[in-house]
UniProtKB/TrEMBL annotation:
Domain of life of the source: Eukaryota
GO CC annotation terms, alphabetical: cytoplasm
Species whose genome carries this gene: Eucalyptus grandis (Flooded gum)
Positions of modified residues (N6-(pyridoxal phosphate)lysine): K287
Protein's name according to its UniProt entry: Tyrosine decarboxylase
Family, per entry: Belongs to the group II decarboxylase family.
One of the record's GO molecular function terms: carboxy-lyase activity
UniProtKB keywords: Decarboxylase, Lyase, Pyridoxal phosphate
Length: 461
């Protein structure tokens, strides 16, 4: 019944208002305030899903959804989720479910090869891959490993001196991770980016910031470089950034949450050139690789760095396989103890699509983004604000498209600020009107003070 229900949902998905139109608290008015004492039939429950849950859904899989970044899925992956939930193993160590561990290692190896990751990230180069829930976890785990690697040498009291670096475009999960692992908030550097570097982090500004910190008696610890930033898909130049960070023996993490999937296409692989100098690399298969949440793929060159920080050895988990040191216990590579059999869905995706079809899926989205760019550029009222590397188009009503802008108000700094505010305000109004129509859902961002509408192509075709 549920499979049929979902099949019908997908058949009709584009007919629903893509952005949910409900008011906060709508559901508590519709459902009883306590759980039923007796069982209820599935028909009644599904009927309630249809009547009451549907209106409160924003339809992320709708072809009219262009907001944030895509989180696409596929039949194969949904079936993989069913198998995962059906088996419901909590494969924290090898012995708790050998297939869960071994399939995860296999799938991460396949995927690492598909991305052409450098040998030191793969098992035959002494590295390894693990599926985390999300990028926030991947960053938190690698930052913990980096922290402990340094504190083991310098003593725990040095924690207050550790400094972490990213740009003002780095995803907010980095800031949260830094807080969680005990980095003094004053030692969190979000280095300013500008249009001149297309909002990528400049190696010079990184080096200057590190030198200033060292002169102030602080210790540079970790760089989070991003390939495909959340706001505008900017690309940090990995190779020169890694050269700077390596001089100071920092841990370098490459966050390619959105764009990593595109690197399975040889023509997009260049965006992660330089990853060979990093310590860890992650991307979210749950964004662009037809795999539903949650599925963040993380590779590290030195798995022991994770294990040294995250392993525990309680009596109730002791077993011969672990003691033999011949197996991986993935709980030691992540925060929680229990873990889902996530590899199943990824394995189903890779097998039932095959690399060639997955590449076509990525290329189609990039092609459609280019098509959208052309349509926007054809209209003189609009402009595309950043060059398009992937499948995100950031655009806006251009200032000259706004009445009263071109004949100039005041030609000084104040006048410029007024103009920018006015243009930003109009663009925000436009987005509000578009989203209120329920026909399309887009989101926005502000980069360098400029408000842009974000059109992220990425539904299942
Ligand atoms: N990093 C980047 C570049 C992102 O775009 C995102 C989310 O969009 C994240 C990190 C956060 O990912 P997660 O929700 O998997 O923690």
């Amino acid at each position: 019944m549920v499979v049929d229900f979902l099949a019908k949902y997908y058949e009709n998905i584009e007919k629903y208002p893509v952005l949910s139109q409900v008011e906060p608290g709508y559901l508590s008015k519709r459902f009883p305030s306590s759980a039923p004492q007796d069982e209820e039939p599935m028909e009644a429950i599904l009927d309630d899903v249809h009547q009451h849950i549907f209106p409160g859904l924003t339809h992320w899989q709708s072809p009219n959804f262009f907001a944030y970044y895509q989180t696409n899925t596929s039949t194969a992956a949904i079936l993989g989720e069913m198998l995962c939930a059906g088996f419901n193993v909590a494969g924290f160590n090898w012995v708790s479910s050998p297939a869960a561990t071994e399939l995860e290692s296999l799938v991460m190896d396949w995927l690492g090869k598909m991305l052409d990751l450098p040998r030191p990230f793969l098992p035959f180069g002494n590295g390894g891959g693990v599926i985390e829930g999300n990028t926030s976890e991947a960053i938190t785990c690698t930052l913990t490993a980096a922290r402990d690697r340094v504190l083991r040498k310098l003593g725990h009291n040095s924690i207050a001196k550790l400094v972490v670096y990213g740009s003002d475009q780095t995803n907010c999960s980095f800031q949260k991770a830094a807080r969680v692992v005990g980095i003094d908030p004053r030692n969190f550097r979000a280095l300013k980016t500008t249009r001149s570097t297309l909002f990528g982090l400049s190696p010079d500004s990184l080096e200057k910031a590190i030198c200033l910190d060292i002169n102030a008696g602080l210790i540079p610890l970790y760089l989070c470089a991003t390939v495909g930033t959340t706001s505008c898909a900017a690309v940090d130049p990995l190779e020169p950034l890694c050269k700077v960070a390596s001089k100071f023996s920092m841990w370098i993490h490459v966050d390619a949450a959105y764009t990593g999937a595109s690197c399975i296409c040889p023509e997009y692989r260049k965006f992660i050139n330089g990853v060979e100098f990093a310590d860890s690399f992650s991307f979210n298969a749950h964004k662009w690789l037809l795999t539903p949440l949650d599925c963040c793929c993380l590779w590290v060159k030195d798995p022991n760095a994770l294990v040294n920080s995250l392993s525990t050895d309680p009596e109730y988990l002791k077993n011969e396989a672990t003691e033999s040191k011949q197996v991986i216990d993935y709980a030691d590579w992540q925060l929680s103890l229990s873990r889902r059999f996530r590899a199943l869905k990824l394995w189903l995706v890779l097998r039932s699509h095959g690399v060639q079809n997955l590449r076509s899926h990525i290329r189609n989205h990039c092609r459609l983004a280019k098509l959208f760019e052309e349509l926007v550029e054809e209209d003189p009222q609009f402009e595309v604000v950043f060059p398009i590397n992937f499948a995100l188009v950031c655009f806006r009503i251009r200032p000259s498209g706004v009445a009263g802008m071109s004949n100039g108000h005041v030609d000084n700094e104040q006048g410029e600020a007024w103009k920018l505010n006015e243009v930003n305000r109009l663009n925000a109004q436009l987005l509000y009107a578009i989203n209120a129509s329920g026909r399309v859902f887009m989101s926005h961002t502000t980069v360098g003070g400029v408000y842009v509408l974000r059109f992220a192509v990425g539904r299942r075709l």
